[in-house]
């Protein structure tokens, strides 16, 4: 799974360069998660996942608190969770997850982003079956053997543990996301380079330079959309 981590790093680097945009997206996601249950991460697992992700992107406390207070205040603002699937150049596959208060606007914007940048939308299920939902947790300061020992002592099963770029990356089933983090926190590890529930392609592809440039424009156009929260794909960006 090593090359999968390259794609996550690429996404983090892109989002880190657009802090105001990513903060706004997290504010919306935190609000929705808090509205779907209690605005308390200890009793709302979905909210806890979002807050853990927000921490790795250094989302300011003020933005988090504002979203939680909005949910606590009984705001009537509602969002629909939508998923779009489509294709980019040279057989590339893309999944787009959105939160929107205007379904027609979002569908139109996503369709336009695909069509204007060499892609086309597919029907539901046309792409998602080629991806797996996976928890990805990364940390520094430990070796893969040390991480494995920590997880074994906590009786936590994972899919894979890899050392990459001075970090150890743990891949696990989604329902083990909190268990993995708790195992680390119990031995004093509280900072993570990545803490994501993500969609990873079962098989990555490499694009020729011209197709890659077009593909990157398509991904940028999708991620720039206000209603889009996450964009997943099967293109290996390499190092």
The helix count comes to: 8
CATH superfamily of the largest domain: YebC, transcriptional regulation domain
Strand line-up across the major sheet: 3-1-2-8
Tell me the CATH architecture of the largest domain: 2-Layer Sandwich
Proportion of residues in β-strands: 15-25%
CATH class of the largest domain: Alpha Beta
Spell the H/E element sequence. HHHHEEHEEHEEHEHE
What share of residues is helical?
A: 40-55%
Pick out the low-confidence regions: none
| End-to-end C-alpha gap | 14 Å
Domain count: the total is: 3
The whole-number mean of residue pLDDT values reads 90
Question: Could you tell me the radius of gyration in angstroms?
Answer: 18 Å
The beta-strand count equals 8
Largest sheet: 4 strands, antiparallel
Domain TACO1/YebC-like second and third: 79-235
Main location: cytoplasm
Family: Belongs to the TACO1 family. YeeN subfamily.
Pfam family, one: TACO1_YebC_N
Care to describe what's here?
- With 239 residues, this protein is of the alpha+beta class.
- The chain has three domains: 2-72, Arc Repressor Mutant, subunit A (Orthogonal Bundle), CATH 1.10.10.200; 80-129 and 202-233, YebC, transcriptional regulation domain (Alpha-Beta Plaits, 2-Layer Sandwich), CATH 3.30.70; 131-201, Alpha-Beta Plaits (2-Layer Sandwich), CATH 3.30.70.980.
- Helices cover 44% and strands 23% of the residues.
- The chain contains eight helices and eight strands; from the N terminus they run ααααββαββαββαβαβ.
- It has helices at residues 2-16, 19-36, 45-56, 61-72, 103-116, 144-153, 177-185, 209-223, and strands spanning 80-87, 93-100, 120-122, 131-140, 160-164, 167-172, 194-201, 228-233.
- It has a four-stranded antiparallel β-sheet. Strands 5-6-4-7 form a four-stranded antiparallel β-sheet, sandwiched between helices.
- Helix 2 packs parallel to helix 4 (61-72).
- It is globular, with a radius of gyration of 18 Å.
- The two termini are 14 Å apart.
- Residues 3-74 form the TACO1/YebC-like N-terminal domain.
């Amino acid at each position: 799974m090593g090359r999968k981590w390259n794609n996550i790093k690429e996404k983090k680097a892109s989002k880190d360069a657009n802090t105001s945009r990513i903060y706004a997206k997290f504010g919306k996601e935190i609000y929705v998660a808090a509205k779907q249950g209690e605005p308390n991460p200890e009793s709302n697992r979905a909210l806890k996942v979002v807050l853990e992700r927000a921490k790795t992107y250094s989302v300011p406390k003020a933005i988090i608190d504002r979203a939680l207070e909005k949910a606590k205040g009984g705001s009537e603002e509602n969002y629909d969770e939508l998923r779009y699937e489509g294709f980019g150049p040279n057989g590339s596959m893309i999944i787009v997850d959105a939160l929107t208060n205007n379904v027609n606007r979002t569908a139109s914007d996503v369709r336009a982003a695909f069509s204007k940048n060499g892609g086309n939308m597919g029907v539901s299920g046309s792409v998602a079956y080629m991806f797996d939902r996976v928890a990805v947790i990364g940390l520094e300061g430990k070796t893969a053997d040390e991480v494995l020992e920590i997880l074994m002592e906590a009786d936590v099963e994972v899919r894979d543990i890899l050392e990459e770029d001075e970090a150890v990356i743990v891949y696990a089933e989604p329902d083990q996301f909190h268990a993995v983090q708790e195992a680390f926190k119990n031995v004093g590890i509280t900072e993570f380079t990545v803490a994501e529930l993500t969609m990873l392609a079962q098989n990555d592809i490499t694009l020729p330079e011209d197709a890659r440039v077009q593909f990157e424009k398509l991904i940028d156009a999708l991620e720039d959309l206000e209603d889009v929260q996450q964009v997943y794909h099967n293109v290996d960006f390499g190092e």
